[in-house]
Amino acid sequence: MATVAHSTANNGQLVMEDVPAIPAQIETDLRRYQNVRSASFRAWTPDADGLYVSTRFGDVAQLHKVTRPGGARTQLTFFDEPVRSVRNQPGGSALAFTMDTGGNENAQIYLLEPDSSDEPAMLTDGESLNASLVWDQAGERIAYRSTRRNGSSNDIWVMEVGKPDEARMVFESPDGSYWLPVDFSADGRFLLFSNLVSNGDSRVHLLDLESGDHQRLAGDPASPSRSDAVGFDETGQGFWYTTDMAGDFRQLAWQSVKLGDEPILVTADIPWHIDRVSLSEDRGRLAFAANENGFSQLYLLDSAKKRYKPVKDIPIGVLIGMGFSPDNKHLALTLNTPATPSDTFVLELGRKATSYGDLTRWTFSEVGGLDTAGFVEPELIQYPTFDSDSGGPEAIPAWFYKPAGKGPHPVIISIHGGPESQARPYFSSTYQLWLEKLGAAVLVPNVRGSNGYGKHYMELDNGFKREDSVRDIGALLDWIATQGDLDTDRVAVLGGSYGGYMVLASAAHYSDRLKAAVDIVGISSFVTFLENTQDYRRDHRRGEYGDERDPQMRAHLEAISPLNNVEKIQLPMLVVQGENDPRVPVTEAIQVVAALREQGQPVWYMNALNEGHGYRKKENRDIYQQATVLFFQQFLLPKEKNDEPK
């Protein structure tokens, strides 16, 4: 086996093996694309005359304050790690937020007084995972899930923010699934919380914080469905949640807290997933979004009348987040379109719960000086797959980005993770970079198992059907062969997490039809992945991939794992990993890199010592993107196989 060339970057934090030096021209060509920013809504100021947004002016995203549309962003946090979830204190000025270290996902909860010069105070123990934080309506306590008890169970804790040392566990997880708080009742006595068993099975529970008694309100273990709590209604006698218990798509539902009462499916006439829901501060209205073939349609709903209407004339794209102002007069939105990165908008609300006025853009994120008018917007295509004529999906949806100029163009297939995620028409500076600088077409499929198309579609890859999703990539290669402006001899695959598994599996199945592959934090062996992923998420992943402790399932997982089929992978590979990844451990990358090298395959390997499940620090992302472009230049773009570097 050839000697491995080692190098480092970013003060030794990015370790690279067999990655060539990046030419200065690539750094120059990519600089503008790598300086695109976004500004996502995080919270309102107490007086509702300003917003807190997350944006990056250094290496990672931090919290900023904006006091008027188009106004300057005043930075409030100055950490080396990105600030994650943010919740503003009801009736107060404080902000609670979470942040981990080096991507290890052991998030801690901090309390920040935005108008104070004091450093944010850490409220949690500094070791366990603490997330899903929610304030009570009095602004005195927070509830959150934590692994503090044993490092693996997601229990529910409650803390008075002024007395963090007196935090107490109020619900002990009886199993390895996720339990997370959602909303306090107005009097603070009851806590609405959810149990996420798997991506297709969740339930809603109610906890009496005085007695400790709890009961299941929605979701049935005997008939798994996805039922996720939203919050109490304005009376406190009912609650809102989304559920697919009555059909293929998740709908918005209301139900009494009295046991035995039937739910009301409020959005039963919308044949799409309801994927974003926000309650106003007075609980009088809701905002929700329907995921209509990847695009978001926003609605406003009258809580008392349970009637809703669509919000028209907003940018066509994807709604990332939203939140009502404390005075219930405005709704902040984070909107992302195919041609613009995420920015924050504010919708003026009318007196009636479903009425509204103007939409005002508050942030104008930089796009590195690029001309957005030249950005390529994707086309939604549908292609048949291997079992479309025998009971399988009628077609597989995919987003198709086509470059300018005459083909045939090389093709990059970008596969999302999850697997229950969804490729949507998000803005991507990376895709625009590939289109412009490589002249490559980009195809982003939603293979079976993807979210957004109903629970039946999402379940089509479960358990022993796992490789059917890989065969959907084979069908996409067949579709590419029918397109005269696409070059079937120059196709690469790229994906992260579960998408990384799909890349490795596609390379094993279709090496003769692919020229290169990029595996980002991917699963190389399902058995070693399940044995080594963090304890607090292992049972949840078993619900999707299968239980490796069952002999029959273990044999199946061994048979389909790319690591055990590595001799079939006969193409160059770029493997990208984070040392601190708690989801897909670094060992998944190490073992497949070693196996590929053992059989003489070209492998470039990057491992960031200060990252976890994906690169969040700009300095690491920049070099990864530069290396990816160089990798495609060397292994994808050459038209003749004998032109490939040795």
Spatial separation of the terminal alpha carbons: 14 Å
The CATH topology of the domain at 6-33 and 370-638 turns out to be Rossmann fold
Give the CATH level 1 class of the domain at 6-33 and 370-638.
Alpha Beta
Number of helices: 10
CATH superfamily of the domain at 6-33 and 370-638: Alpha/Beta hydrolase fold, catalytic domain
Number of strands: 38
| Helical content band | 10-25%
**Could you give a short account of the major beta sheet?**
10 strands, mixed
Second-tier CATH architecture of the domain at 6-33 and 370-638: 3-Layer(aba) Sandwich
Strand content: 25-35%
Q: Globular, elongated, flat, extended or rod-shaped: what is the shape?
A: globular
Multimer state: single chain
What's the alpha carbon Rg, rounded to whole Å?
24 Å
Provide the residue-averaged pLDDT: 94
Helices and strands: which structural class?
A: alpha+beta
Which ranges are low-confidence, i.e. pLDDT below 50, for 5 or more consecutive residues?
A: 642-646
Report strand order across the widest sheet: 1-2-38-37-36-35-33-34-32-31
Domain Peptidase S9A N-terminal: 89-349
Protein name: S9 family peptidase
Keywords: Hydrolase, Protease, Serine protease
Domain Peptidase S9 prolyl oligopeptidase catalytic: 427-634
